[in-house]
Amino acid sequence: MYSGRIFVLGGVSLMLVYIFASNHTLKIFFRGIESVLPHQQVTKKLYQWKTAYFSAEDSKQKTQQEIEKEFEIDTKKTDKQTSIEGIEIPKSSFSDEIIQHSYYTLAYSEEHEQARWVAYKLSKKNLSHKVTRRNEHFEPDPKVSTGSAIPADYGGSGYDRGHLAPAGDFTANETMMKETFFMSNMSPQKPLCNRETWRLLEEQVRRWAEKKGEIYVITGPVFAEKMPHIGKKNKIAVPPAYFKIIYEPAQKKAIAFIVPNINKKEDYKTYQVKVDEVEKATQLDFLHLLSDELEQKIEAEKVGKF
Fold first, then answer.
1. Tell me: the pLDDT tens digits for 96-109?
2. What ranges make up the beta strands (E) of the chain?
3. Cβ–Cβ < 8 Å for 290, 84
4. Which of 104, 215, 268, 277 could bridge 273 with an S-S bond, Cβ 3.0-4.6 Å?
5. E strand intervals along 64-212
6. Rounded distance, CA 194 to CA 133, Å?
7. CA–CA separation, 161 vs 221, rounded Å?
């Protein structure tokens, strides 16, 4: 009777060792058996089966860890998710064509031959500087069903082809850089507005993205009833101003600007406004996926520090 119990306990102990021991420990254990009882094919098979199984499991775990590292997944923070899918897309009553490119979305206003807004998530990954704009060239947007403006429309106009989604925000790969040069993403900007005031604001936005890790950016022209036009083939409206809204999901804060389209270098900070003021000027509804209470609070606030 006692020998039977000892046999059962010994068998259970061996099974536990087999299951939970590390491959290294098991290898030493089986080598010991081999030295006492040579040519034991059973122990060799058991060791091979265990190492093969756990090697496959290790490989699965490694693959999952690589995926999480690649996409910056923090499994410890999933219960505190701050991002909201589509938070950057404004609500609009305009019948614009919504164009979704790989890394940003825009609403194309055929009436004005440019985007009414462009929106995207800007993370540190976007800013990895793997590509430059050196070899890029402007081209019509193939996704605009009515046909976008063309590069020649700006020729001799005295206006720059001003990026709404700036090329500098999309330096991680060639696809994202190339897409920023679609003419749907261009708006006629006065040279000093484009190259100085607006450029400095864009650079500040990138610094915020570097610091905060992830932000959302919505940019577009502020149209008026009567505007001058340029264009040899298409009639492109020249907006009197441009807006930019930056939303930080972690702190649930937003900062907004309306910058005049004038040929003068100015301090963009003087053009900070409330999100409410941008909504009034553009007739667009921003951050509408937030709760009403939070949306109203954010949009009515003019933050002192972002």
1. 999 999 999 999 99
2. 97-100, 105-109, 114-123, 160-163, 186-189, 214-222, 229-230, 236-237, 241-248, 253-260, 272-273
3. yes
4. 277
5. 97-100, 105-109, 114-123, 160-163, 186-189
6. 16
7. 13
Smallest CA-to-CA distance from 105 within 95, 94, 90 is with 90
Q: For 168-208, how does the pLDDT look when each residue is reduced to its tens digit (9 = 90+)?
A: 999 999 999 999 999 999 999 999 999 999 999 999 999 99
What tokens appear for 216 in the block?
């959302």
At position 122, the amino acid (one-letter code) is L
**Geometric angle at alpha carbon 85, from 84 and 91, rounded to 5°:** 95
d(CA 193, CA 189): 6
Rg of the chain's alpha carbons, rounded to an integer?
Answer: 30
**How far is Cα 257 from Cα 89, in angstroms, rounded to an integer?**
17
CA distance 236 to 239: 9
Q: Is-contact 224 239, C-beta < 8 A?
A: yes
**129 is annotated as an active-site residue:** no
Catalytic residue among 112, 163, 229, 288: 163
| Cβ atoms < 10 Å from Cβ of 44 | 13
d(CA 72, CA 70): 6
Distance of alpha carbon 303 from alpha carbon 179, whole angstroms: 32
